[in-house]
Amino acid sequence: EMKKAERTVRRLREHDEVMDELANIKTYVMLDDSKTSNFTDLWRNRGSRRAFILLIWMVTYQQFSGISAIKDYAGLLFKESNPLLDENIEMVITLSVTVIASCLSTLYIDRFGRRLILFTSSLAFMIALLAMASFFCLQATYNISNYSWIPLISLIIMNAARSAGFRPLIYVLMSEYYPLKVKATAVTTVYFVGAITESINLKLFQIMSDALGFGPVLFICLIIYTVGTIIMYIFMPETKNLSLMEVEQLFERGWK
């Protein structure tokens, strides 16, 4: 097992001098295994509390960006845009790109800085969401049938940005941010909050779309996502190449 751990750390750090880090990790894990945890431990420790708030914020604002609702209502969105292709074919294209992007994310997710991945994937997502929102707003007034490809391309870019960028990033951050003794409790809670906010967002998206139309609702989602990303980027520390102990100490010291 130690040999496997050594090979893994060498591959991650891209150098051979890893024995000191492995020894520190082993000591850290042994000390942490002797502790028990519950939900209140997320708030007793300042570092755990900060990490927990940051991850809760990340999953919440991303759900209210409308990505889950847009994905679930994609067939209706395509139908409303008078697509050049059958909406079922467009759905297949979109989902195929999503699968490919998810697979590609495993090749680089640990090679680049967390803040860089958040920034680039969020920027691509916001540009695509802006294009889609503008299309549906203009469609209500002008004949833009020649641009009916915009919703398809926009959704492809949005799903690719999500699947190759900030969605796997959430899993990486959850594995890095929490001390071992509270990791299981924290991850379960974050998943639960994500499921609740997704359900709320799906219902709100339907109600608001019926009342306002797709265009205005998508612009509201864009504003929420932009503000959420800015706040996340300001307070999100860079944890690439940091050990579990270093990440814990980073959150203990403060946001930066």
From TrEMBL:
Bilayer topology term: Multi-pass membrane protein
Bilayer-crossing regions: 51-71, 91-109, 116-142, 148-170, 182-202, 214-235
Name of the protein this chain belongs to: Major facilitator superfamily (MFS) profile domain-containing protein
Domain Major facilitator superfamily (MFS) profile: 1-240
InterPro entries: MFS_dom (IPR020846), MFS_sugar_transport-like (IPR005828), MFS_trans_sf (IPR036259), MFS_Trehalose_Transporter (IPR050549)
Main localization of the protein described in the UniProt heading: membrane
Keyword vocabulary terms for this entry: Membrane, Transmembrane, Transmembrane helix
Entry GO MF terms: transmembrane transporter activity
Cross-referenced PANTHER family: GH07001P-RELATED, PTHR48021
GO cellular component, one term: membrane
Subcellular locations according to the entry: Membrane
Gene3D superfamilies linked to this entry: MFS general substrate transporter like domains
Organism (species): Bracon brevicornis
